[in-house]
Amino acid sequence: EVQLVESGGGLVQAGGSLRLSCAASGFTFDDYAIGWFRQAPGKEREGVSFISYSDGSTYDADSVKGRFTISRNNAKNTVYLQMNSLKPEDTAVYYCAAAMGLSYSSYPVFTGPEAYDYWGQGTQVTVSS
């Protein structure tokens, strides 16, 4: 059974930090790129941050550059999203997703939700002002 399970969301004041985790099972984790997406009420799904399947190259959306950092620990089948300097506009449900064989070299496919095969259930992040 393929599973991606997000955790670490919560309520935080503007300027604060959260660290999200995405625990994967049921597939060959090392062969998949992992992306973080988010969706706020009434808005479309938005790509946030991505990490390659092979060399660990990353890409961040302009809205989060310099504030969010994605990383992966293949030994633990886990991806992290460190979120610093949070803003109210970061409020959303955050999802992790897995795409087989993708890397930064295939950008912009790398950041397209249609390329991602497996999705987690999401974790709520709320940033108050």
Question: Key features?
Answer:
mainly beta, single chain, four-stranded antiparallel sheet, seven-stranded mixed sheet, 11 strands, 129 residues
Give your account of this protein's structure.
With 129 residues, the protein is mostly beta strands. Helices cover 0% and strands 49% of the residues. The protein has strands spanning 3-7, 10-13, 18-25, 32-39, 46-51, 58-60, 68-73, 78-83, 92-100, 118-119, 123-128. The strands form 2 sheets. Strands 2, 4, 5, 6, 9, 10 and 11 form a 7-stranded mixed β-sheet that branches. It has a 4-stranded antiparallel β-sheet with strand order 1-3-8-7, with no helix packed on it.
Please, how many helices? 0
Oligomer: single chain
Rg, nearest Å: 14 Å
Q: What ranges have pLDDT less than 50 throughout 5 or more consecutive residues? A: none
Strand content: over 45%
Number of strands: 11
Main β sheet profile: 7 strands, mixed
Distance between the termini: 40 Å
Residue-averaged pLDDT: 97
Kindly state the percentage of residues in helix: under 10%
Principal-axis shape equals globular
Order of helices and strands: EEEEEEEEEEE
Q: What structural category arises from helix and sheet content?
A: mainly beta
